[in-house]
Amino acid sequence: MQYKKIRIAKKGSIFTIMLDDPEHLNVLSREMIKELHNVLETVSKDRSCRAVVITGAGTKAFCAGGDLRYIKSLENSSQVGKFFDLLKGVCLKIETMNKPVIAAINGYCLGGGLELALACDIRIASSMSKFGFPEVKLGIMPGGGGTYRLPSTVGMGNAKYMILTGEHIDSNYAFRIGLVNAVVARAKLLAYAGNIARTLSSNSQSSIKEAKFALYKNSKPDYSAERNGFIRCFKNKDKDEGIEAFIEHRAHAFDKRR
User: Fold this and answer.
1) What are phi and psi of 248, to 5 degrees?
2) Could you say which of 25, 159, 223, 241 would form a disulfide bridge with 64 (CB–CB 3.0 to 4.6 Å)?
């Protein structure tokens, strides 16, 4: 199958999936999300695959989040809910996949991009990476499982700081709070991730499959609160002001729109 927004490479038993829209910082368009779902489905069924690496094309971003122009175009709760389910579905596909998945994070890892990374089993970051959930600055909230996976990864206090302030953190901060497992020079990122992938691929695949399943079942959340909150945000004028301000490269003025 031919893909427009992602690239796939195979080296031995390791598959690399690259988000491939560097001109737009690899944002999660509807097309990219659908392609990711398809390729993850294919890779999960490939018996020759023993480990997966997900990364972003270019040097600026792993993934800078959702496609805001598309998100802004959503007109009703049904469309918003379908987008939430689409993004959540891809993250769940990664989390429950029967192969170990490594996120090799280069540059910006924001919003939906950070939710993709959180769904991976292991996260390696370049020293130049930035992380954040900027949704509150856009009048929305995380919509791909971030309010569930972030607290379980970095603790509730750190999760509240990141989600409620919307501020970016750097790689060293991310490592200190356990958001990433290692920080390396950008030039060594894929090689480092590849070494971990080879270690994973040499382990018992049946054991990895069972362990991943148990870990998922032990932490399986109910996503209804996040889904409902995400939809309610789209009924608030803050969403229009926040996204318009971002697109127009100006400061938001939420109070003036109420």
Assistant:
1) -90, 5
2) 25
